[in-house]
Amino acid sequence: MRPGPRKWTSNDEWHVRAYIIRRLLLTIPTLVLLTVLVFLSVRFLPGDVIDTMVSESSVYGDAMDRAAFERMLGLDVPVYVQYGRWIGVLPTPDWRTGESRFRGLLQGSLGRSLVGGRLPVERKLVGRLPVTIELGVMAIIIGLVIALPVGIYAAIRQDTAADYAGRSFAIIGLATPNFWLATMVMIYPVVWWGWSPPMQWIRFTEDPLENLAVFIIPSLILGTGMAAATMRMTRTMMLEVLRQDYIRTAWSKGLKERAVVMRHAVKNSLIPVVTLIGLQMPIVVGGAVIMENIFNLPGLGRVMVLALSERDYPVVSGINLLFATVVVAINLMIDLVYPYLDPRVRYA
User: Fold this and answer.
1) Distance in angstroms (rounded) separating the CA atoms of residues 314 and 327
2) I want to staple 204 with a disulfide (CB 3.0 to 4.6 A). Which of 77, 114, 142, 211 is the partner?
3) What is the tens place of the pLDDT at every residue in 225-281?
């Protein structure tokens, strides 16, 4: 006789709390290491914002030497001191008054931009963040809507025309670079039909339909690339699960195909698929940067490319740290979802 579902006990609740606390504590050294990598990698870029500022000051007749600019921007101290000021463990002096105060990551500040009036970095990013979030969320939804049904259907109809079509789609999607496809979408419709994708960004609150029309093509291109790998993983895991003994037992009891597939097979095949989705988040973030620049979307990707060209270290570091933190948080949530997908996985 098949045992009933196991009851949730107070011991299970304790294990859940302990596991969540342990995982949260493990993210602390991860984020600290990320801050070091983000801070140093930007400063290894060739070129220097100081050279540009010195040349511009001489052109406009307000010449300042390099040392004055370095002192004004806080670049006249060793790199480890700059890092300590950036994260907020060392005080940052005001070059005008000489007054020092703590104003870094630990105080909720990403620093100040080196160009454009030295605005706080968070002020430059807050208005662009919703654009990147909308693009990324739409791409993920489109990718999952394509990948999961196609992968499941290809597995239960193995070696049929539908299976071959799905596998061919996945191979083409993996082999086609997103930036190349986006460029072709921008060029050939104009040449052939005199039509181009919408390029004027409109807020969702002003016109929801026009807003979605602007995002649908870049989201579809970005989501299709994500769907290709996810579909292949879904098909592979579904085939493995469908060969298990308990699935054969369900078939032998006369259960309908929908019940066997949806109730028993799909859920048990999702852990590797969910893991892959988490691993694809950096690809989605990088793809969003490319799509924003090709389709003229005013998101964080546009800001980062401009900041890279200007060597605006705090802005580039802030955006990279924000992206990295989002990826870490999503993977943490995926880890916490595992036991709900497969009862054999326990918080211990």
Assistant:
1) 20
2) 211
3) 888 888 888 888 888 888 877 777 877 777 777 777 777 777 778 778 888 888 888
Residue with tokens 């370095």: 70
Round to whole Å and give the CA distance between 252 and 248: 6
pLDDT tens figures, 138-175: 998 998 898 888 888 888 888 888 888 888 888 888 88
Query: For position 13, what pLDDT does the model report?
Result: 65
Q: What is the pTM assigned to this prediction?
A: 0.80
Measured between alpha carbons, how far is 240 from 235 in angstroms, rounded to an integer? 9
Give Cα separations from 183 to 35, 138, 309 (angstroms). 34, 20, 22
Q: Read off the DSSP letter of residue 161.
A: H
Q: How far is CA 251 from the centre of its chain?
A: 40
Alpha helices in the chain (DSSP H): 10-43, 49-59, 66-73, 79-87, 121-126, 129-156, 161-175, 178-193, 208-242, 245-252, 257-259, 266-268, 270-279, 281-294, 300-310, 313-341
User: Contact 71/85 with Cβ under 8 angstroms?
Assistant: no
Q: What is the 3-state secondary structure (H, E, C) of 62-98?
A: CCCCHHHHHHHHCCCCCHHHHHHHHHCCCCEECCCCC
